[in-house]
Structures are given as structure tokens and as C-alpha cells.
Design goal:
This is Protein TonB. This protein is an alpha+beta fold. Helix content is 26%, strand content 30%. The strands form 2 sheets. Strands 3-2-5 form a 3-stranded antiparallel sheet. Strand 2 and strand 3 (69-78) form a beta hairpin.
Length: 115
């Protein structure tokens, strides 16, 4: 295995964890959103890893009263068609603070190569 591939895999949890902390607003005021209790880092798509591609996906998330994710919708992705599936699969496994159902929580999931 090449150094680049090892570096990419090793960087995913650190890179992904950093992007879960902030929200993005598109001009709409929301009530306080539930805190993320458990954030699953996405797998780096192998095709992107082989091509040394980096990018991000902005997702809109709906959460029920138990803190479970009920819907994930891709708002945008750069580059398009590469990272959406990995980001969506990871976010579907996230867990939020219970007792604060919410819709339209917007988060950015970044995919960065290190090394």
C-alpha cells in the first residue's frame, strides 16, 4: 500500500470530527439545535482516494425526539458525484441529543487527504 493511501485513511476520523462541530445557516433562524452525541466519520471513497481528490458535502438533517436521524438530504457537494454517498451513510448513523426534535440541521462533512 502506498504512503498516500495510508495517510488518507488515517486522516479521515480527525478531519471528519472537526467538521461536525459547527452549523451552517442559510438565513433562516432556527431554535437551538440538538447537540451531536455520536458522530460517525465517513469512509473515504476509494475512487477519490486513488485520485487524491478532496471535497465536501453539505447535508440537511432531520432528527426525531429520541435523537435519531430520520432523514439526510444532500444540499450541495464539491466535487459533485464523489462524496455524497459516503457522507450520507455516515450521517444516517449519527446520534443527537434526545428531547430536541429538529428539521433542516445543516452540516458540512469534509473529505481531506493528509500527508
Amino acid at each position: 500500500m502506498s504512503k498516500t493511501k495510508n495517510a488518507a485513511r488515517a486522516s479521515i476520523p480527525a478531519a471528519a470530527a472537526a467538521v461536525f462541530l459547527g452549523s451552517m445557516s442559510f438565513g433562516t433562524a432556527f431554535a437551538e439545535e440538538p447537540a451531536i452525541i455520536k458522530a460517525i466519520a465517513p469512509d473515504y471513497p476509494r475512487a477519490a482516494e486513488r485520485r487524491d481528490l478532496e471535497g465536501h458535502v453539505i447535508v440537511s438533517i432531520d432528527v426525531d425526539g429520541s435523537g435519531a436521524v430520520t432523514a439526510v438530504n444532500v444540499v450541495s457537494a464539491e466535487p459533485a458525484g464523489i462524496f455524497e454517498g459516503a457522507a450520507t451513510r455516515a450521517v444516517q448513523r449519527w446520534k443527537f441529543e434526545a428531547g430536541k426534535p429538529a428539521t433542516g440541521i445543516v452540516k458540512k462533512v469534509a473529505f481531506k487527504m493528509e500527508g
